[in-house]
Amino acid sequence: MQNKITDGDIDKLPGTKFQHDVWKALLRIPYGETRTYAQVAAMSGHKNAVRAVANAIGKNPMPPLIPCHRVIRSDGKIGGYSAAGGVKQKEFLIKQEKSGL
Predict the structure, then answer these.
(1) Distance from C-alpha of 72 to C-alpha of 28, rounded to nearest angstrom
(2) Active-site residue 39, yes or no?
(3) Residue 41 phi/psi, 5° resolution?
(4) Which of 18, 29, 74, 91 could be cross-linked to 36 through a Cys-Cys bond (beta carbons 3.0 to 4.6 Å apart)?
């Protein structure tokens, strides 16, 4: 699912500035690619707040439109997914995007 959400849309969502920074960073992960939580922390301007960034990702109000499923652990493991379907859904979305669908 290609992004249809913009930074301006994120600014209208309930949440803190920190959460908005993180959710905006998620929009910049290209379709079919993944980033680690540490990379998203750096992308959001909060490189020393990896755990807080992971928490903000877990509070994403619009998965998969705000593509939190593209974030994986630094050891390459899938990590968690708080949206419907859990980790199995996250694995499916990553595989689907990497295949070009």
Answers:
(1) 15
(2) no
(3) -60, -45
(4) 74
Distance of CA 28 to CAs 5, 84, 88, 90, Å? 11, 23, 23, 18
Active-site residue, from 29, 54, 66, 68? 68
Please, which pLDDT band fits residue 2 given cuts at 50, 70 and 90?
A: low
**Rounded CA gap, 59 and 54, in Å?**
9
Q: Which CATH number fits domain 7-98: 2.60.40.3710, 3.40.50.150, 1.10.10.10, 3.30.70.240?
A: 1.10.10.10
Model confidence, pTM = 0.93
51 exposure class (CB count in 10 Å sphere: 0-12, 13-18, 19+): exposed
Domain ranges of the chain: 7-98
pLDDT, tens only, 61-87 = 999 999 999 999 999 999 999 999 999
